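Z., the sequence and structure:
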Amino acid sequence: MQPTQYILVSLPLRIFDDEPLATLATTVGRDNGETLPFPIPSFKIGTLDGLVQHADDLAKLNAACEAAVAKVADSLTGILDGDEDKAAEQKMVNDKPTDHYLRTFQWNKVRYRADRPLGELIENLQKELQNIDTDVKAKFSQYNGIKTSLAALQRKQTGNLSTKSLTPIVDPRLLVQDSEYLETHLIVVPTNARKDFFRSYETLVPMVVPRSSVQVAQDDEFTLFAVTTFKKTSAEFLQKCREQKWTPRQYKYVEGGQEEEQRELDRATREEKKVWGEALRLGRAGWSETVMIWAHVVALRVFVETVLRYGLPLEFVCALVRTTPKQAKKVKAALDSAYSYLGGNAFGRDKRGRVTKDDASLTSEMAAAGLGAGEGNEYTAYVYYEIELP
């Protein structure tokens, strides 16, 4: 199934004879997408210079929203072991499907009062996005740290002899302890190198105790041996073992060590489960908040760009076109065909009637009007923005 893509379009009412939304829906075409009303309040307009600055700020904030939403989506998928279907179930806005929220969008007048200056609204949205982004990042970072620690503890219990804990494996009676001159080393040898080990371990360095090798344990890949040497040649012996691709293991017998390791594993398991739940809840909340903030940012972008393009009195229709990435190209082509004349000299038609752009005229008109295509967006003759959710 193709992902949903949303397109926001704003057009001046003066170009319509009647029923602007119905006319726009006909232009888009039912096969290409569903056209829905997207109500935008009347905000304080302010000065032209202010609007141009707001347009720039909103373009940057829009990019930040897109990145934050994508980050939350990645975090949710990651915490759910890459299960996209389960992650999709968590992507709710106000406990309803994200699609329902966008299709029935209403500006939150309690949270963002429409009678406040645009700059203040933009600043509030920016702060909210930053806060939720920071919270989500911190919680998922905490979870990943705990998950890594737990995995390390589990490897100690279930890994092979080169990585797992030796506490439950090594009988302390095999070790020379509290000797002034002698020391026992634990060496992990690949099973296919056992013969080489038996043949050469006594002669790797001087002062290896003859026939001191004892097999301690074996698994599918490795064999663990205990070997006793004089302390003065211990460092050299361990280095020679490494050169042979044999792995020395550090081990010190501690009374009750096995029980303590199990308690530590149990603690980490409980902590991982607890923080997993917290991260999932915060991921859900993060998705809801970042999508809501993004929708309000795009609504403000539409308003600001509509004033800059179509001027006053402010009479326009704004619609949400619900489509797919594949059909979106057809929607754009249909809109260009019907409304490119709004771009004046910047757009024309070739001999076959196809819409063309005069880039030189386009650039000068944009500069004169204080308009920009926005970050990563192609300039259009009308107000046009896309939202594609991960």
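The longest strand covers residues 182-190. Confidence is low (pLDDT under 50) at residues 346-351, 358-376.

Let me know what you think.
H.
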